[in-house]
Amino acid sequence: MAEGAENARVRELQARLRQAGVFDRAPTGFYGSITTAAVRSYQRGHGLSVTGSVDQKTWDKLVAATHRPTAAELRPPTTNVLDKPDPRCMTGRVLCISKESRTLAWMIDGKVVSAMDVRFGSENTPTREGIFKVEWKARDWTSTIYHSPMPYSMFFSGGQAVHYSADFAARGYNGASHGCVNVRDRSKLASVFDQVKVGDKVVVHW
Questions:
Q1: Which one of the listed residues 46, 96, 147, 180 is annotated catalytic?
Q2: Over the stretch 184-201, which tens digit does the pLDDT of each residue have?
Q3: Is 96 among the residues known to form the active site?
């Protein structure tokens, strides 16, 4: 396994790395820079070649030192751990959205006011990255294209919005959006929706 992979085996890897004390967040199934750093740390501490990729020796050593992850370890109910905020999120009022940690942080002047899990679009309908602003909001909205409910929508790039997703709440990361930023914690999003103003900054980053 190596950076860029996204599958069930990567999720198991992350859960085992968490057991080993080198991965401090919920498994996502995506092998990004945080997973690479955790693998390097594990390899360094166990006399293995420090590559950041998982070869057979690394995998065998990790499997021998850990137990098969339970369902709760693979998909813990707790919120994903925030990564270091993008520098563009450190000033003003910002919805800071990380594809790496799959989190949204509502930040004001560099301080996190609220944070929640998010998921994104698939390869065919990717969530756009960059700096945007909240163009308009709708507490009750139904997609005009897909005809699915989008409560607490905050549109930031054409038809792409941050919104609550009942599907995400039910299926977790087994599904994907059509490009929007899905939130599964309705009460947290409702609170943030009431605080966010049209014109507030949105940063979507890795």
A1: 180
A2: 999 999 999 999 999 999
A3: no
